[in-house]
Specification:
Elements lengths: L9 E10 L2 E11 L4 E5 L6 H8 L7 E6 L2 E2 L8 H7 E4 L11 H11 L5 H14 L15 H13 L5 E5 L7 H16 L3 E6 L2
Parallel strand pairs: 3-8, 6-7, 7-8
Antiparallel strand pairs: 1-2, 1-4, 4-5
Helix pairs in contact: 4-5
Length: about 200
């Protein structure tokens, strides 16, 4: 399970992606290298989300071969899925923040779930990722007190907590107006410039 520095972050070889029992994408192959920015473009319902879910082991891979961040997705064991997800940041269109917890509690929840336990380090990392996404003092705010664009920035900050090798973003600007979307896209470009690969699904 070692990953060599020249290995692609994602390698998909002759994979067929299923949604329930229907194949939505047949016999696809592609690679994403370290630090690459790739777009996955297709209309709604074309199988983009199913492909992404397969990459982070939310849907089983039945045909073909996929490697993500050094993990073999086809025979990944349940107990290894959290280790895979520590290496990738996942960003959803609908934010998926806990509405009844502050921003800090949302981020701390992820850190605890992924093995952080030093509260000083957690506090430092929390401030660091929020700064990275251009949000200063929102730690104590509840999600509903933030705009859609700010909530999406919190979600990106959450995805960056464990310094992932790749960010997988499923229509991250789908619910945002064009101005806000532009800012979010620029943010992804900045993150990408600092060396994190990005795979973004979009219908536009």
């Amino acid at each position: 399970m070692t990953m060599f520095s020249s290995d692609p972050v994602v390698r998909v070889k002759e994979a067929t992606i299923f949604q329930d029992h229907n194949s939505v994408l047949n016999n696809i192959s592609f690679e994403i290298d370290k630090g690459e920015f790739a777009f996955l473009v297709g209309r709604t319902g074309s199988g983009k989300s199913s492909l992404l879910k397969t990459l982070y082991a939310d849907l089983p891979l039945r045909l073909g071969d996929i490697q993500v961040a050094g993990f073999n997705i086809r025979d990944i064991r349940d107990k290894d899925v959290p280790h895979l997800r520590r290496k990738i940041g996942i960003i959803f269109q609908d934010f998926q923040l806990f509405p009844d917890r502050t921003v800090a509690e949302n981020l701390n929840f992820v850190m605890k779930a992924t093995g952080w336990n030093d509260s000083a380090k957690m506090k430092g990392r929390l401030a660091e990722v929020l700064m990275k996404v251009g949000l200063g003092s929102v730690e104590r705010k509840m999600p509903h007190q933030l705009s859609g664009g700010e909530q999406q920035r919190v979600v990106i900050a959450r995805a960056l907590l464990n310094e992932p090798v790749i960010l997988i973003a499923d229509e991250p600007t789908g619910n945002l107006d064009p101005n806000v979307s532009n800012g979010i896209l620029k943010l992804f470009q900045q993150i990408n410039k600092s060396g994190t690969a990005v795979l973004m699904a979009t219908h536009s």
